[in-house]
Every structure is written in C-alpha cells, then in structure tokens.
Design brief:
There is one protein chain. The chain is built from 10 helices and no strands. It starts with 8 loop residues before the first helix and ends with a helix. 80% of the residues lie in helices and 0% in strands. The longest helix has 36 residues.
C-alpha cells in the first residue's frame, strides 16, 4: 500500500501559501489593533495616567466577550459583516476578518499584561522629568515591555495557526480546508497527516523565531 498516493504537492503548496497569507495579513492587523486596544486598556485602568473607569469597563467588557466566543461560532456569527467587508464569507479572504476579530482581543490582553510588568518607578521618573504622555508610551512603556510584547506576538501567531486550520471547517481555505475536505471527508489519511505535519513545523518555526527575538532583546 502506498501511504502517499493521495498527496498532490501543488495542492499542498497552494494550501500552505494560503495559510501563510492568512497568518501574515491577520498578524499585521492584529498587532496594530491589539496594541492600540491594549495600551488604552492599560492607560485607563486604575492608577494609570488616563484612569477612566467607564472607558476601561466598556472596552474590557467588549474584549472579554470577543475572547469568550469559540472561534468557529464567531466565524459564523460575523459572516454578514465579513461578506460586507471583503465581498465573500469563504476562502482565504473570508477567513481573515474573523481571524482578526478573534486574535486582536486576545493580543490586547497580552499587551495590557506586558505593560503592567513595567516598573512603575520608571514611569514616575519620566513624568517627573516632564515627558509627554506620547513620549512615555513610546520611550518608556513600549521600550521597557518589548520582550513581553515579542513573547505576546509569538503566542498570538502560534494560536492563529490553529485558528487558520479551524477556519477550514466552513471553507476558510488553506491547510485546514485541505485536511478537512479532502483528508477527513475524503478518507485520505495520508493527506491529513501531511497537512498536520506542515502545521506542526510552522508552529515550531514561529516559536523558535519568537524565542530567539525575546532572548535578543532581553536585558543582559
């Protein structure tokens, strides 16, 4: 028996490229949106420069709701919005909006947690020297928390690999779609094993690169 008789490498290559496209585009928007939301959550929390209980409570509530919805259900719930934004609710383009909606709140919480690790004395020292709020955010908060932020980006990227695979359940494209439609539903075990192996390799590479960057920017 030929265990790899169902493998079509051009299809595997295309599915891999689709997954990388979803991952890359989603990460760009996730980092931008999540960083902004995470900074606002931190600054408006109790005891911080822009302390505002109402803003923090509302934003925190929205983030918690989005984080609590299982990804597959979230994809289905926002299908109308996805179709309005990108013109379709399936394929690579249709998977990107729900991926961003799922990942950005997750990343925002990691950003907030990373910023809370910054020594409060450093922030107070910058305020005492008359630094503007923007300078404190850019030169103190983000700079001092960069290793935590890099770790957060790595965790989010690894999580997104799993999300891209789950998007295949409703025709999201990529390796997940290939594994489910042709591997599982088509009873092609060899195809499913190859796609899983590629996903595992992606995760390992992302984790190794992320860990290397964290070590590179960590204080000696």
């Amino acid at each position: 028996m030929n265990w790899f008789e169902n493998i079509r490498w051009p299809e595997i290559t295309k599915a891999t490229n689709d997954t990388l496209t979803m991952l890359g585009v989603t990460m760009v928007f996730t980092v931008i949106i999540g960083l902004i939301v995470g900074i606002v959550l931190f600054l408006t929390s109790s005891g911080q420069m822009l302390q505002n209980r109402i803003v923090y409570s509302i934003l925190s509530f929205i983030v918690n709701i989005l984080r609590s919805i299982p990804f597959i259900i979230l994809m289905i719930l926002i299908m109308p919005m996805t179709k309005m934004l990108v013109g379709q609710s399936w394929g690579v383009k249709g998977a990107i909006p729900p991926l961003i909606v799922a990942a950005a709140p997750f990343f925002a919480r990691l950003v907030e947690a990373s910023l809370r690790e910054v020594d409060r004395g450093v922030i107070e020292a910058a305020q005492a020297m008359g630094a503007s709020r923007w300078r404190i955010i850019w030169s103190v908060l983000l700079r001092e928390s960069r290793t935590g932020l890099l770790a957060a980006i790595t965790i989010t990227a690894v999580t997104l690999v799993g999300y891209t695979a789950m998007s295949g359940v409703i025709g999201g494209g990529g390796l997940g779609d290939l594994a489910i439609r042709y591997g599982y539903q088509g009873y092609k075990l060899d195809l499913m094993l190859v796609t899983v192996a590629i996903l595992i390799i992606m995760v390992q590479i992302l984790q190794m690169v992320g860990d290397a960057l964290v070590r590179r920017f960590s204080r000696k």
